[in-house]
Every structure is written in structure tokens, then in C-alpha cells.
Hints:
Layout: H1 6-12, H2 22-28, H3 44-50, H4 56-71, H5 78-95, H6 102-123, E1 127-134, H7 165-182, H8 185-199, E2 200-201, H9 212-217, H10 219-229, E3 234-235, E4 238-240, E5 244-245, E6 251-256, H11 261-264, E7 280-285, E8 290-297, H12 308-326, E9 339-341, H13 351-356, H14 364-372, H15 385-389, H16 394-404, H17 407-410, H18 418-421, H19 429-438
Antiparallel strand pairs: 1-8, 1-9, 2-3, 4-8, 5-8, 6-7
Amino acid sequence: MIPxxxxxxxxxxxxxxxxxxxxxxxxxxxxxxxxxTDEKLNDAGRWSVxxxxxxxxxxxxxxxxxxxxxxxxxxxxxxxxxxxxxxAHIADKMANIAKVDGALAKVGNENGRRFLADLGxxxxxxxxxxxxxxxxxMMVNLAxxxxxxxxxxxxxCFGLPLIPGSAVKGITRVQALWEIHEAKGDEKxxxxxxxxxxFGYGAHDLRGDRGDFGWAGGENEARAVADEIGAQDFKxxxxxxxxxxxxPATLVVDMVNPHYPQYYSGRSQTARDDEKPIPNYFPAVExxxxxxxxxxxxRVPALxxxxxxxxxxQVKQWLERxxxxxxxxxxxxxxxxxxxxxxxxxxxxxxxxxxSTPVTAASPxxxxxxxxxxxxxxxxxxxxxxxxxxxxxxxxxxxxxETLIPANERNKLRKSNPxxxxxxxxxxxxxxxxxxxxxxxxxx
Length: 444
């Protein structure tokens, strides 16, 4: 079923079962829905994803067993039973892949830690590094795989997940633009100058209508900074390196289940509840993995009040805030891709201790605060509103509200403030209005 040339088939097997590198499996040996037969294989996308996740072989074998049970049912249609038997055979074949070498993955993690240490030794005062722990699942390069909307960024040598340097730079730049946009007076100009030096810019970035820096700091201000730098096109002074896992990373299969495929595809004018959901599967990095981040300066322009230490400190602040507040990858507004700074070791509790020592479960309010403490930006917060409004006690609601909403935002209860628009519009707008009403708050 997997299209292979004769020489490649002789090397890796009919179903690429001799391949243990996840990156190679994901990018080169995906199972097509239609190949060599008129019958469509609806599970092709899911099985291609299962092949690269940590427990993929077990899940594929489970699918094969389920399909055989269904095929052998008393009332099974002979034609349908034949199709299920054939699909079960394919699932079994897909499950026969070489197991990932645990020692090799360990070497990859060690390389990630050594890489951070070597950067510090080599570049000294010109580099910043830190580790951060995934607090939720993460999806990176979702649209970049051979299976539609089921991509993931994997290292070619070790098959380990990574965050490309372009993604690290992108989220840091977005964080910088928002901080510049919200700053006032001299602070705005200072941040604007640092950002233009750190990230670089082109003439289009200075425009007030469509340019990023023109929007964030004002067109006149951005052009004035460019004149001070002495260039209308400028290459950034900072290099953002890929983030590699420094502890074992688990890959899992996740899914999104659109309930209105006809409506979303434009084939129906209304979203009807009688449509059949079509689940889409994709790989994700499980929470708890630790990644090492690094950024370094390639030069420091000779400008007043500009130093390597100042630029690096700003880079680190923006990068740390980006990964803990904005998140990395896709679906960050739904809670994916956010980090906690530092290495958070997952302690294993002995069975005896777990039985003999009573454990008090965290309250719904505490769980809500723990989950969304680092996701309290205007873009991410709508995901928390349904859970906040579900808190029965107004006292618990107020505690969560005052803990999660930044104090500076609570002091600016204005309808025009982008932060509060999430409370009045969009899918969670009704929940937001209920929250404000229960707390006795009114937007001006």
C-alpha cells in the first residue's frame, strides 16, 4: 500500500517496517488513502500519524483487533466484513515498525543539554539560554507534513520533536510588538528601537497602515528610529536557535472533531446537527517535556545607550514571556503550547505511598488558576471563560478572576480595550458578560 521503488522496498521493507526514525516515517512513508485499489482507506491519515507517536504500534494493533471483531460479528455484511478484514491486515502491517532506540533518544537529549552549555562557553556574554517545561500539549509545524494538517517538526537524526528557530523568533517578535503597542512615551520609543535592532526590518515594516513596527510604535516613530540606525532595511542583530528537548519527549496522537463538515466546506448554508463529524488526527508533544531555548547576538551597532547586555536582557524577557504567555505552535488559544520556566521534574510516587497517604484533590478553582495562570493574554483567555463561569460560588469566581486577570487590566474596564473584548464578543462573549455581571463590573 505504501508506494516504494524496488530498491527502497528491498532496503526498508514493503511497509517501511525497518525504519525506526520517526522523521523519516512521517515525511516519506505516509499511507495514502487510495493506492493500487479503487477502495478508499479512510483510516490512512490516522494510521500514518500513529506510526510516529510513542505508543503507535500498540494502538495500531488494537485497531486491527477491533476491526477483526467487527468483521466477525453475527450480523456483519459479507462485503463490509471483507473490507474490515483487509483494513485489519493493513493495520497489523503498519504496526510492524522498528522500535525507536531508547539509547539513541537519550543521546539526543544529552546533546540538547550539552548544546546549551557549549553555547554559554563559546559565546559567553553574547548568548542567553534557559530551559522551560511544557505545561500542556504542543503542536508545531501542524500544516507542514505530508498528511494534511497533521505535521510536526522532528529532528532528522534522532526523530525527536523540536521547535524551529523561525518559530522561536516569530513568537518572540509578536510578544515584542504587543508590548511596544501597549507602552507609552519614552518606554515605547526605547522598546521600539531595541526591537528593530534585535529582529531587523524592511521598509514595509515602517508603514503605519500595514507595517508591524509602524503599527506597534507609530509610523513617524519607526521611521525616526530607522534614521537613527541609518538604514531603511536592516538585518537583525539576534539569532534565535531551534529549541531541542533536554528530557525524554513523548509523542501522542490528538484529534479535532469538526461537527459541521458540510457547513465549514461551504456546501451548506447552515450548520445542521444531523451532519456526521469527521475526526482529524495529528501528532502532538505531551506535556512535561523540557526544551532548551537559546538566542545570541551576532553584532552590536554603535548607537547611544545600546549595549550587548541590554539587548540580550530584552531578548530573554520577550522570549520568556512569549513561551509562558502566548504559547508555541498551533491552537494556543485553546490552551496548547504554553510553558513554565525551568525544569519541572515529574516525581514518581511509590504505589505503597500512594495507597497509605491520603491525597487531597485540588479544587476546581485551584485547577483553573493553575492551568490558565500563564495564559491570561487577550488572545488566550477566551478558553478560560467557560470554566470560570461554571464556578458555582461567586467567591471562587472572584478569586480566580483577581488571580488571573492582570491588575493593570482590571484598572482599565473599557469596552475599547482589546483585552475586554473577549468578555463581550466571540464564542465566549456570553460567558464573559455573565462573569462581569456576577462580579458587579461594568465596562465603560
